[in-house]
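**Backbone geometry record:**
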Amino acid sequence: MTCDAPVDALDRVHLRTRHFLIDFDGPVCSLFAGTPTAPIAARLRTILTNAGIALPPAIRDTGNWFEIFAFAASTGPALARHVESELAALEAAAARTAAPTPGLADVLSACHDSGRQVAIVSNSSASAVRIYLDIHQLTSQIDAVAARTGHDPAVLKPSPYLIKQAASELGIAPSACALIGDSPSDIAAARSAHASSIGYAATSGRTEQLLAAGADAIITAMADLAASIRGEQPESLPLAGITVTRDSL
């Protein structure tokens, strides 16, 4: 097994890309940091049961509201629209108490100083994203937002649809972009869109998941990305100074 220093992996991403697409919940903020998440899935399930829909065990037990949304869509557009609307309202409320991700401001500043465009690409509702950006006075630093605006879960990541939408709004090809995301679905979406990907592994165990999904590089702090954009040595390096690249898996 061979290992590459994270800074080297990031340098290779910078050589073939110019602009950044950033996932919202994780790299930008912790959306539900100030909001209990347990009731969210329950509220969405209630919409389905009130409509007389029998829930399969997987949907009765899951805490993943996107899985419930996808199931609602499989029952028809009316319920999908209802569930999505409720989820969007919950996300919009959560955006008002979301916790900023440390180092994000440095990334945006480094991108601005180096002439890079930045877009938000998120499965969360566009309204929640824009509420957060407005509250934290980040709107002027974001060139495009590609997020959920309708009741079709098929266009959400891991689909490449939102990545292609963001790149189109920026006026560039997806291959000129690197997506920063904290989930395997982010990495899968980037690969499908022929964009590069940088995994944001803020929690233990996430590094291997993101590498297994095909991430081109890994960071454990957004400050590391800012440093690499500026050509500086990152202060925080994962795995005691080395990161396994996907070629070594």
About this structure: The two ends are 8 Å apart (CA to CA). The chain has two domains: 6-31+98-248, 38-95.
